[in-house]
Design brief:
The structure holds two protein chains of two kinds. By secondary structure, chain A is mainly beta. Chain A is 0% helix and 52% strand. In chain A, the strands form six sheets. In chain A, strands 2-3-4-5 form a four-stranded antiparallel sheet, with no helix packed on it. In chain A, strands 6-7-8-9 form a four-stranded antiparallel sheet, with no helix packed on it. In chain A, strand 19 and strand 20 form a beta hairpin. The two termini of chain A are 30 Å apart. In chain A, 55% of the residues are buried. Chain B is an alpha+beta fold. In chain B, the strands form ten sheets. A four-stranded antiparallel sheet of chain B has the order 3-30-29-28, with no helix packed on it. A four-stranded antiparallel sheet of chain B has the order 4-5-6-7, with no helix packed on it. The radius of gyration of chain B is 45 Å and the shape is elongated. The N terminus of chain B is likely disordered. The chains are: A mainly beta, B alpha+beta. Chains A and B meet through strand 1, strand 2, strand 3, strand 22 and strand 24 of A and strand 31, strand 32, helix 9, strand 33 and helix 23 of B. Strand 1 of chain A pairs antiparallel with strand 33 of chain B, so a sheet runs across the interface. Chain A: Keywords: Lysosome, mRNA transport, Nuclear pore complex, Nucleus, Protein transport, Repeat, Translocation, Transport, WD repeat.
């Protein structure tokens, strides 16, 4: 049975746009139109407000937790065109870096797998994707992919560090040569896959075409024992696609329509073992799917109704 | 305002002020109770112009009463940057004014057409350098401009000559920031200037009729005097600061003006009311409803409310913003509402009807607010533009102060003027910009950030719990009304509801819930438990398998448990698979019937058929089997079960058979420890050998369950489990029995490999890795190195996520992959300081970069240490372990003589 463990009273003054659990599943970060980012301790069904981060001057669209090996770091992106990286030092959260390199609303942020270092990808309505790499001593290096998506980029998602086929005979002990990849979805109805070239430049590797309206979210599945690369995407057109790539070079991707909803699909999210995909749509419900089994709508969640006073 | 600035205009002002005060003061009392009141200078009664026949002429009915505006989003290039725009009351013409532009454009359906250039003459004077322009809302021919040199000019388009200039008022000393016509009174013009004065002009006269000073009022004086000195100084300084900023913003012409016109106020001159006079006026606006009232905003953050008949003092004053208030706008319908915008990036809406101005709403924008205009016909909407940084125009719903309702992004430079095209049409907005363009924006073409905004947040937690945030109003709306008002695909639904504010209303909150998914359906509790309880090494293989099988079973993961059991059989008792067994299973398969199976299901199977079956089965057909079993089981009661036990011959037969088998196994298997185990094990091995484990799901589960109730139901379980499979495979098993029963473990390796892949694909990398570790060399060679490594790293990652450090470490240690087992080494870092220069050693090895000496010298024997090196973390000195230990027995000081009290622990 589906049960609600916890209804978090966020006391946000406006709509919540994103909620993210941290690596260990103990903290929940939320962000809202009211310009604030809040962090809650949700261990054991509790909900203790740890931090209320103010610094954005517009609605905050998304938050992302960095891998804990770098400390307690949270990135947030906002309509005010800024990306803020927050850091906890001695129990207090503070702004550690502000990136103002976009000309329009920044819609999505995603941290790269920890193996690559501290790298943040940011997708913006100005069509560009910027990659912030921590170079030490509070410095961030910025690389920008201009015109990644015309009209705007809505989502970014990194490929897991271990891409099948990429570990070709590494002499042990040497750091493997990871190929950094990420996927992005935009207002041009496309999903694009980006790959870092040897010279450190980012190049468009693939263009995945199937949606007929804005792509709202893309999620690269965690690679837990899976022999294939898998990406889930959802769109304004109500469709959810599962893209798989079997070949090692990563060039042939085939879409499979998971489901067509009657409404906008906003989010797709993989469980950590990548066997279940949660989908949330305009009908205000969450559907879970198990793509391997081809099952649709295993479970449907509806938030508890609360009478508006 | 220093006394130095006594120009002729100032002199006149002085003379007139006391006189007027005298005249107005007397009838003031009457006006309060609404009685007739003589307003001598304007020649009006407060009942309005309707009483005055001669004024009726100038009054015009509302322009374009019922007709509909048409047009599209368009823009045209201007020759120069615009400073302000104003729309003619016919909504068909717009005037653009700037430092070097003053033109009238006709707004046609497809384009702007230049109609008239008011900037005539060979040598344009500074009078034409406009800071503001306003078109009279009653008289189509009447315009007023505010010049950067302090002149207020009126223009009469009806003049036959090329030069339309009508009147020139040179009363202000500095830039006039704002001019404003009385909304209903044809001849009344108000101006507000940088010099701190507001002047009211009667256009039938040559000079101003009254002057209002931002500070030198009775009320103001009183307030000023009551302030402590320190605070006065702060205000003063603040003003100077703002003044400094203004200099950037104002035109160069204005600076020239300043240099001869008004000396800067020295900081020190802040004593007394005189110095307080000159708070620069940024905006003046006649109230739309209150005939005599106007509001003015100041650079010090104040807003004043004046009665036009009382120039001596303001009716009310309050501090609205932190920093200059650049603009204000009266609500077109709500009598008391005033919107103000300031450098503090805020737009505030005030209710002025109450005794003290009450802040109703506060909108935070991205940049300082230069202009604010209420949107016609939309009670809660207003448009803003900024004077720096941000070039966009926003329309806000004041009830939703964080997200703009709409946004116009056409301009490439700062937007300087905005105006709604028609006072009753909410869809057309005109704007002028520093980028030398004039735009018409259509509301429907605006980008709507709210539409783009994601109303839902979704996240999978570590334990498979789901956090889901969604619009709360949606939830509430579901009971009854249409659930999703923000739906883009129902435009008609939107359009009909003409109040554009509606889709907005009440959509401003979200509910955040954390769901627990079904155990096994995504919940990860089993993962943690399994990881903690599995035994991976240190015991004989059979024991490990049995132990793990038991763990899995206790966690309700029957398929996994069964796999362990089978592994145990495959690898621990080679050659012990008796031919009899195979035959036996075949026999059973042939003899069993459906009723038996059902009865079993009812009793034991139902609870076992948990989520796992749903998840772990990969084949659709097995799934349907399960369903079938379940449904049929519900039809049969326990009585059936008993019946079968007693009466069914095959069951009896089987029971005996199994028991016999059991004994046999005891004898043959020396490693056997758990007497119950074989019951579930024995019949099993017949199938997995011949087809994939994954294809036999019902079997394993049945068998497990039986383990709890070993006897009667146990035998039934055997039968039941075989039933669905054997019906199709019986032939195969017979033929299989012909093979040599002593199969080498290698025989199964393909099967085991497939099984591991299966688990891994299911996301259960835990199983794959555990089996890999336990079987070690037995399967290692069959699975390629990369895959193994990938499983290991995935599993270790997962373990670390769940903070199962010990398990993770154990896995790393036990791993058969070299790349994995070196992980432990890679993640350990020693930070060492050079013992000479005390700075961190950056490179590898023991030679310091900076002092180029070997850092690993023994402080006791002064030789380079090879082997164990111990050093003090406090002073970085150290040496041979033995030497240091010995040294510290006799002394607590550092052997290097640095004076540090070293501690050896």
């Amino acid at each position: 049975m589906v049960s609600v463990i916890n209804t978090v009273d966020t006391s946000h003054e406006d709509m919540i746009h994103d909620a993210q659990m941290d690596y260990y599943g103990t903290r929940l970060a939320t962000c809202s139109s009211d310009r604030s980012v809040k962090i809650f301790d949700v261990r054991n069904g509790g909900q203790i407000l740890i931090a209320d981060l103010r610094g954005h001057e517009g609605p905050v669209w998304q938050v992302a937790w960095a891998h804990p090996m770098y400390g307690n770091i949270l990135a947030s992106c906002s309509y005010d065109r800024k990306v803020i990286i927050w850091r906890e030092e001695n129990g207090t959260w503070e702004k550690s870096h502000e990136h103002a390199g976009h000309d329009s609303s920044v819609n999505s942020v995603c941290w790269a797998p920890h193996d690559y270092g501290l790298i943040l990808a940011c997708g913006s309505s100005d069509g560009a994707i910027s990659l912030l790499t921590y170079t030490g001593e509070g410095q961030w290096e910025v690389k920008k992919i201009n015109n990644a998506h015309t009209i705007g980029c809505n989502a970014v998602s990194w490929a897991p560090a271990v891409v099948p086929g990429s570990l070709i005979d590494q002499p042990s002990g040497q750091k493997p040569n990871y190929i950094k990849r990420f996927a992005s979805g935009g207002c041009d109805n496309l999903i694009k896959l980006w790959k870092e070239e040897e010279d450190g430049q980012w190049k468009e590797e693939q263009k995945l075409e199937a949606h007929s309206d804005w792509v709202r979210d893309v999620a690269w599945a965690p690679s837990i024992g899976l022999p294939t690369s898998t990406i889930a995407s959802c769109s304004q057109d109500g469709r959810v696609f599962i893209w798989t790539c079997d070949d090692a070079s990563g060039n042939t991707w085939s879409p499979k329509l998971l489901h067509k909803f009657n409404d906008v699909v906003w989010h797709v999210s993989w469980s950590i073992t990548a066997n279940i995909l949660a989908v949330s749509g305009g009908d205000n419900k969450v559907h879970t799917h198990s793509p391997q089994l081809g099952g649709h709508g295993l479970l449907v969640f509806t938030p508890p109704t609360r009478e508006l006073t | 305002m220093g006394k130095k600035r006594t120009t002729s205009g100032e002199g006149r002002e002085r003379q007139r002020l006391p006189a007027r005060r005298f005249r107005i003061a007397a009838p003031r009392a009457d006006s309060a109770d609404g009685g007739s009141f003589f307003f001598p200078l304007l020649g009006l009664t407060d009942r309005g112009f309707s009483d005055c026949p001669d004024l009726k002429m100038s009054r015009v009915t509302t322009a374009l009463g019922g007709s509909v505006l048409t047009g599209r989003t368009m823009h045209c290039h201007l020759d120069a940057p615009a400073n302000a725009i104003s729309v003619c009351r016919d909504a068909a013409q717009v005037v653009v004014a700037g430092r070097s532009i003053f033109k009238i454009y006709a707004i046609e359906e497809e384009q702007f057409v230049e109609k008239l250039n008011l900037r005539v003459g060979r040598k344009p004077s500074l009078n034409l350098s406009c800071a503001d322009v306003v078109w009279h809302q009653m008289d189509e021919n009447l315009l007023a401009t505010a010049a950067t040199n302090g002149v207020v000019v009126t223009w009469n388009l009806g003049r036959p000559s090329r030069n339309k200039q009508d009147q020139l008022f040179t009363e202000h000393k500095r830039t006039v920031n704002k001019v404003c016509f009385h909304p209903t009174e044809a001849h009344v013009l108000l101006s507000g200037s940088q010099d701190g004065f507001m002047k009211c002009f009667d256009l039938r006269r040559k000079d101003s009729v009254s002057t209002f000073s931002g500070e030198a009022t009775e009320a103001g004086q009183g307030r000023w005097a009551s302030l402590p000195v320190a605070q006065r100084c702060i205000l003063r300084i603040h003003h100077s600061f703002a003044h400094g900023l203004m200099r950037d913003a104002e035109s160069r012409a204005n600076e020239a003006q300043e240099s001869w016109g008004c000396p800067d106020y020295p900081l020190g001159l802040c004593s007394g009311p005189q110095a307080g006079q000159s708070e620069s006026v940024r905006d003046v606006q006649f109230s739309i409803r209150d005939y005599f009232t106007f509001a003015s905003t100041f650079e010090n953050g104040n807003v004043q409310l004046w009665d036009i008949r009382r120039p001596d003092r303001c009716e009310r004053m309050f501090t609205a913003h932190n920093g200059p208030v650049f603009c204000c706008d009266w609500h077109p319908e709500d009598r008391g509402w005033l919107a103000t915008g300031g450098r503090d990036k805020m737009v505030k809406v005030w209710d002025m009807t109450t005794h003290r101005a009450k802040e109703m709403h506060c909108v935070q924008t991205i940049a300082s607010v230069a202009r604010v205009k209420w949107r016609p016909e939309c009670r809660h909407h207003l448009a803003t533009c900024s004077m720096m940084v941000d070039h966009n125009i926003y329309v806000w719903d004041v009830r939703r102060p964080f997200v703009p309702a709409a946004m116009f992004e056409e301009h490439r430079d700062v937007t300087t003027g905005i105006a709604w095209r028609h006072p009753h049409d909410p869809s057309f907005l005109l704007s002028g910009s520093k980028d030398s363009s004039l735009c018409q924006h259509l509301f429907r073409d605006a980008s709507q950030p709210v539409e783009r905004a994601n109303p839902e947040g979704l996240c999978y937690g570590l334990f498979g719990d789901l956090a889901f945030a969604a619009k709360e109003s949606l939830v509430a709306a579901e009971s009854g009304r249409k659930p999703y008002t923000g739906d883009r695909r129902h435009p008609i639904f939107f359009k009909r509801k003409l109040d554009p504010a509606e889709p907005f209303a009440g959509l401003a909150s979200s509910a955040l819930s954390v769901f627990e998914t079904e155990p096994g359906g995504g919940g990860m509790r089993w993962f943690v438990d399994t990881a903690e309880r599995y035994a991976l090494a240190g015991r004989p293989l059979a024991e490990l398998c049995d132990h793990n099988a038991k763990v899995a079973r206790e966690l309700g993961r029957n398929q996994v448990a069964q796999t362990w059991t089978m592994l145990r059989i495959i690898y621990c008792s080679p050659g012990l698979v008796p031919t009899a067994n195979l035959n036996h299973s075949v026999g059973k398969g042939g003899s069993c019937g459906l009723p038996l199976m059902n009865s079993f299901n009812l009793k034991d199977m139902a609870p076992g058929l948990g989520s796992e079956t749903r998840l772990d089965r990969s084949k659709g057909d097995t799934r349907s089997d399960t369903v079938l079993l379940d449904s049929s089981a519900t039809l049969i009661t326990n009585e059936d079960n008993e019946e079968t036990e007693g009466s069914d011959v095959p069951a009896d037969y089987l029971l005996g058979d199994v028991e016999g088998e059991e004994d046999e196994l005891y004898l043959l298997d020396p490693e056997h420890t758990h007497p119950e185990e074989p019951e579930c094990v024995l019949p099993q091995e017949a199938f997995p050998l011949r087809h994939e484990i994954v294809d036999t799901p019902p079997g394993p589960e049945h068998l497990q369950d039986k383990a709890d109730s070993p006897h009667v139901s146990g035998s039934e379980a055997d039968v039941a489990s075989l039933a669905p499979v054997d019906s199709s495979f019986s032939l195969l098993s017979v033929s299989h029995a012909l093979y040599d029963s002593r199969l080498p473990p290698d025989f199964f390796s393909v099967l085991v490999r497939d099984m591991l892949h299966f688990y891994a694909e299911q996301g259960d990398v835990q199983m794959a890795v555990s089996v890999l570790i336990i079987l070690g060399e037995r399967v290692r060679k069959d699975i390629d190195e990369q895959t193994q490594e990938h499983w290991y790293t995935s599993y270790i990652d997962l373990l670390q996520r769940f903070r199962l450090w010990n398990v993770s470490n154990e896995v790393v240690k036990l791993s058969t992959s070299r790349a994995v087992s070196c992980l432990n080494q890679a993640s350990t870092t020693l930070h060492v300081n050079c013992s000479h220069c005390k700075r961190p050693m950056s490179n590898r090895g023991w030679v310091c970069d900076r002092c180029h000496r070997c850092a690993s010298m023994c402080a006791v024997c002064h030789h380079v240490v090879k082997g164990l090196f111990v050093w003090c973390q406090g002073c970085s000195h150290g040496g041979h372990l033995q030497h240091i230990m010995k040294w510290l027995e006799g002394s607590s000081h550092c052997p290097a003589g640095c004076g540090h009290l070293c501690e050896y622990s």
